[in-house]
Each structure stands twice: as C-alpha cells, then as structure tokens.
Amino acid sequence: MALPAGMRVGIDLTSVSGVRDAVAAHGDRYLTRVYTSRELLDCGGDPARLAGRFAAKEAAIKVLRPREDTALPWSDIEVLRQPGGHVELRLAGSAALRAEQEGLAAFSVSLSHEGDAACAVVLAEGKG
Amino acid sequence: MEDKILAVLLEHGRLPVPADSLGEGDDLYAAGMTSHASISVMLGLEDAFDVEFPDRMLTREVFSSIASIRAALDELATAA
Predict the structure, then answer these.
(1) What is the largest CA-CA distance in chain A?
(2) Any idea what the CATH number is for the domain that residue B55 is in?
(3) Which of A18, A29, A69 sits opposite B37 (nearest CB)?
(4) What is the ipTM of this complex?
C-alpha cells in the first residue's frame, strides 16, 4: 500500500565513532559547522546524540531531494528536543526554501542510537 | 595538489578502499565515502590548503570526486 499522495520518507544511519573521530580531529570547527547552538546544548557533547542529529539532517535531506549542486548547510536543518522528550525538525534558510519548492509542509522525525549506530527517520507531508 | 587531496582523503575519508587507488573522476560516494565523512574531508582540506569553503560550496557535487575537489580549490585560490 503506497503512502498517501504527497508524503515522503527519508532514513539515515550514521556512525557514532565517525562523529567521535570528527570531534577529535576538528573540534569546534566541526561542531559549529554542522550543529546549531541549541543542538549542541541538547547533546552535551555526547557523540551518540550528535550522530542521531546528523542522521536526522541527512534523512531530512533525502526527503527534500536537493539537486547535487544545491548547497544545504547542515545547520539549516535543526533537531529540537521538546519538553515531552520527543524531537521535532525546524528548517531554515535553504532547507526551508527547498521544502517550499517541493511543496512539503509538515515534518516529523524520530531518532535512535545503539552501539556505534545512530539512525533517524523523517516523514514529510505535502500540501496535498 | 593532488597528493595533498589524496592525503586528506586517506586521513579523513574513512574510505573502504585505498584513496590512492581511485581515479580523479571516480565517485567518492560510490567508493564508500559517507556524507558524514565528507564533512571531515572538507575540514581536512581547509586545514591542508588554508582555505574556507563558503556555504554555497557545501554541495554533494563539490566533494564527489578528486577532480571536483581540485576544481573547487582552484576556484577558491583564484578568488583569494
């Protein structure tokens, strides 16, 4: 059974050790290039949480389907932890523009991590 | 220049194949580089060549091959 018209899904798997190595190699230059200050606060330096958020950004990019030559800075896609503990996506800049172009209005994201794997799924609904 | 690019790919690309076995036009993602590893490659290139990639260059295409990386570095050098 196909998804309702206008819905899209994206998934990504990110290596926690890959994030740990990137922080070790590049420090704040890596962190501030990829994550927003809010995300860094929420993650408290935990590579598994950072990896989960990177996976969410990549899963969102798969939903937004940019062209290969389109720049989508990772920090334009922000994962916000909500009081209830779940997370939501906030798009800004080129990511918000891309969503508009693709007619995508509502996004939902879920993260998980276990061992060296962090995973995220993003669902997006079109304007119908 | 190519040697320096290869050295960065070797150190940061987390490629499952030796970077120096790749042709300059070979697709680095198809060779096993992940999106996340491409960030480390980008930051490593910035260190190695003392440049900063502007946001407009943070595209999948720029980091897709040795040749496209070299073209981007040439563009930054010309603009400097």
Answers:
(1) 46
(2) 1.10.1200.10
(3) A18
(4) 0.88
Shortest CA gap A71–chain B (Å): 5
Which range of residues forms the domain containing residue B42? 2-79
Contact assessment for residue B20 and residue B9, using Cβ atoms and an 8 Å cutoff? no
- Cα(A99)–Cα(B42) distance, rounded to whole angstroms? 26
- B39·A34 Cβ contact <8 A: yes
Q: Which of A69, A77, A113, A119 should be substituted to probe chain B, the one whose Cβ sees the most B Cβ atoms within 10 Å?
A: A69
What DSSP string runs through A38-105? HHHHHHTT-HHHHHHHHHHHHHHHHHH---TT----GGGEEEEE-TTS-EEEEE-HHHHHHHHHTTEE
Residue among B14, B60, B61 whose CB faces A18 most closely: B14
**Residue-range domains of chain A with CATH:** 7-126 (3.90.470.20)
Q: pLDDT, tens digit, for every residue of A90-126?
A: 999 999 999 999 999 899 999 999 999 999 999 999 8
Q: Does A114 touch chain B (CB under 8 A)?
A: no
